[in-house]
Design brief:
The structure holds two protein chains of two kinds. Chain A is an alpha+beta fold. Helices cover 18% and strands 23% of the residues of chain A. In chain A, the strands form three sheets. Chain A has a six-stranded antiparallel barrel with strand order 1-2-11-10-7-12. A four-stranded antiparallel sheet of chain A has the order 5-4-3-6. Chain A has a two-stranded antiparallel sheet with strand order 8-9. In chain A, strand 1 (92-103) and strand 2 form a beta hairpin. Chain B is built from six helices and seven strands, in the order H-H-H-E-E-E-E-E-E-E-H-H-H. The chains are: A alpha+beta, B alpha+beta.
Chain lengths: 359, 319
């Protein structure tokens, strides 16, 4: 294992050096980069005992790091400001568990998606100058994951080149180490106003959102592969009978005709469908379980079960109400620790209540 | 003599006895004059029997002790007053908790890639609802009565009695379908077990059938789907095995809504010998998949999971 890790570091080192030298011409990299593209997992060649030891030690390490970040006495947290009109606060990274039905007090049935906030920490703070010149940003990380887990290559200002995304890049590991936080599966940026900045390393909980509020959820939709035009864009196709020769699901005509004498760019044609980031806007939060960190969000959400998503307050103007006093900049357990285990929306039927009698 | 006595008794009884007796009381003889007295005699004996019924004994009614001879007649001590035996009231409307080991099928999670944590949270919600609304043990083939809140019904309450033909769904969205024939029209209503609009679920008759799915009753003769809406609950013991009704149903002539004779439905409860010719039964076997029972990837043994969930549910319910 030691030799292996040395080899990995060496390879990483060589790659980093060679790529930094030729950063502006990625076409040259194809020849000189020797990336580790083997399909294997980190404990394939370990003995049983060593595998167990690795798992236990990594889990202990993560728990210690998380507990440390919960302790406020270690490092002073940053100053907290009051909410003003037009300030934006952070969002969360959550995992989609599944869907369940919910009923309102008038007997209507709706469906809700359950999202669990697992190990959400603020990982890095990018000031206005570093980020884009206009707004500050906070990088928030989601699910805890081993350092050998492959990452979606984060195309930030750090990585201008595409290298093998089989292992977490060194820059990201450095970020996690600086924040004192275990490596995360998903890292997202939230554009945040200056009065809502949070110190890197603070954990974020589901009580950050309250029932009755509206949120936007972004996730990668389920990949469908190469799909035809009927499934991809909802074209009508052609009839099944009445003399159609080998034409039942084809796109048909591709444009006006002789005048442009070309097919316009962006013409809807068959191609790869899904596996893109899709946002669902204006989803109401019906219920928040503060004990297990689960949010019940109205309707459906893009992505498969157990996928990692990004949740933030709505940008829709008609749904962003200022009546609810939302925790600003975020929910801290040590301050507002005494919340009920379950927070419900006013219209939601709670299962411990007696059955409805409609009058 | 008899006639006058009868008349006296009948007058006496009529004055004090307020219950209404049926007009068309059966008489043995058809002749009018004899019939009148005979009617009266029948009435007073019937009413005397009613009077003796301990439930109807009240200070308003006449005590039957008036007919006995007066005490102290022979110089004996008056008989000690012994109060009448207390009536034993068996309240059949109260349901006794089942002592059978029964786990409702919607608690068993399907074989999916979902996190078991999600099923655990859903189970907590289901148990919370079950503590408020008693959902009894029932199977497909049992006769149930469901009262539901309905904004369009008069009195806002809707009661439907039917035979359960199907149980579907897992978790909070579990459903069951009740079928009945009302005014010559077949009606099927799909109820969600955990819906807050349901006020009460009663099991009128608990039994199992030969199949898990009785949707074929749609193509069977209507006598098999008719359930009396005013049916009285049939008492069943909370211990012991549930009775299996081995009835095999006669069908209407083909075509049916589904080809029930095909082996994929695996229906035991239809009289195919009356509905199909031997050639048709043989032809249906062409759709058989005999290799499916040897397919090991399809095996999903839920016994351990069920035991664990049953223990958890029983623990939570008893809290």
């Amino acid at each position: 294992m030691a030799a292996w890790s040395c080899r990995l570091l060496l390879q990483r080192g060589t790659r980093v050096i060679s790529l930094r030298a030729a950063a502006e011409s990625p076409s040259h990299l194809v020849g000189c980069v020797r990336s580790v593209n083997t399909t294997t997992w980190f404990d394939e060649h370990l003995t049983e005992e060593n595998q167990e030891y690795m798992r236990r030690s990594v889990a202990q390490e993560y728990r210690r790091q998380t507990a440390d970040s919960l302790n406020p006495l270690k490092d002073e947290p940053w100053r907290r400001h009051e909410w003003t009109q037009g300030s934006r606060r952070v969002g969360l990274v959550a995992v989609k568990l599944g869907m369940a039905p919910i009923w309102t007090k008038t007997g209507e049935r709706h469906v809700a998606t359950m999202l669990q906030v697992q190990d959400c920490h603020v990982v890095k703070h990018l000031s206005k100058e570093e980020f884009d010149g206009h707004t500050a940003a906070l990088l928030v990380g989601g699910k805890n994951v081993s350092p050998f887990h492959h990452l979606n290559s984060l195309l930030t200002i750090f990585s201008l080149f595409r290298h093998s995304d089989r292992q977490k890049s060194e820059e990201q590991m450095e970020m996690f180490r600086n924040a004192g936080v275990p490596p995360k599966q998903k890292l997202t940026t939230f554009k945040v106003s200056d009065n809502a900045l949070i110190k890197p390393g603070t954990p974020l909980f589901a009580a950050h959102f309250r029932p009755g509020q509206y949120v936007d959820v972004t996730a990668k939709s389920i990949g469908k592969g190469f799909q035809g035009v009927m499934k991809r864009y909802g074209f009508k196709g052609q009839p099944a009978t009445h003399g159609q020769t080998k034409t039942h699901r084809r796109p048909g005509a591709s444009g006006p005709g002789g005048d442009p004498a070309k097919v316009f760019k962006g013409k809807k044609m068959p191609g790869r469908m899904g596996n893109v980031f899709v946002t669902a806007y204006g989803l109401k939060i019906w219920r928040v379980n503060t004990k297990c960190n689960v949010l019940y969000v109205n309707g459906s959400v893009p992505g498969h079960k157990n996928c990692v998503l990004k949740i933030r307050d709505t940008i829709l103007p008609t749904r962003s109400s200022t009546l609810l006093s939302l925790p600003f900049p975020t929910y801290f357990t040590e301050e507002e620790g005494d919340l009920d285990e379950d927070l419900y929306d006013d219209n939601l039927f709670i299962h411990t209540d007696p059955s409805l009698t409609l009058t | 003599m008899e006639v006058t006595a009868a008349h006296k008794k009948s007058r006496f009884v009529d004055a004090h006895f307020p219950t209404r007796l049926p007009y068309n009381f059966p008489c043995k003889n058809g002749r009018s004059d004899m019939a009148a007295c005979a009617k009266g005699l029948h009435r007073c004996t019937f009413s005397l029997r009613l009077l003796r019924d301990p439930r109807l004994q009240n200070e308003r009614f006449v005590s039957t002790s008036l007919c006995r001879p007066a005490p102290g007649h022979n110089g004996e001590e008056p008989p000690k007053f012994s109060p009448p035996a207390k009536p034993v009231i068996i309240d059949k409307t109260q349901t006794v908790a089942s002592l059978r080991k029964f786990l409702s099928p919607e608690f068993v999670p399907p074989r999916q890639r979902t996190d078991p944590f999600k099923f655990a949270i859903e189970r907590k919600d289901m148990i919370r609802r079950r503590k408020v609304l008693h959902i009894p043990e029932f199977y497909v083939g049992s006769i149930l009565a469901v009262t539901m809140a309905d904004p369009n019904a008069s009195g806002k309450i809707n009661r439907f009695v039917g035979i359960c033909i199907q149980r579907g769904g897992k978790g909070l969205g579990a459903t069951f379908v009740l079928r009945n024939i009302i005014d010559n029209q077949g009606v099927e209503i799909c109820y969600e077990m955990y819906s807050p609009r349901i006020q009460k679920i009663d099991v009128l008759k608990l039994e199992k059938r030969l199949d898990d799915n009785l949707v074929y009753l749609r193509d069977a003769l209507s006598e098999y789907s008719t359930v009396d809406p005013e049916m009285k609950p049939v008492p069943f013991s909370p211990t012991g095995e549930v009775t299996v009704n081995k009835i095999r149903v006669r069908m209407r002539p083909k075509p049916w809504s589904k080809r029930w004779e095909r082996p994929k439905f695996n229906i035991q409860g239809i009289r195919f010998d009356l509905a199909l010719t031997p050639e048709q039964t043989e032809h249906a076997q062409k759709w058989a998949h005999p290799w499916l029972e040897y397919d090991m990837l399809r095996e999903y043994d839920t016994s351990n999971l069920e035991e664990r969930i049953l223990r958890e549910v029983q623990q939570e319910m008893s809290k």
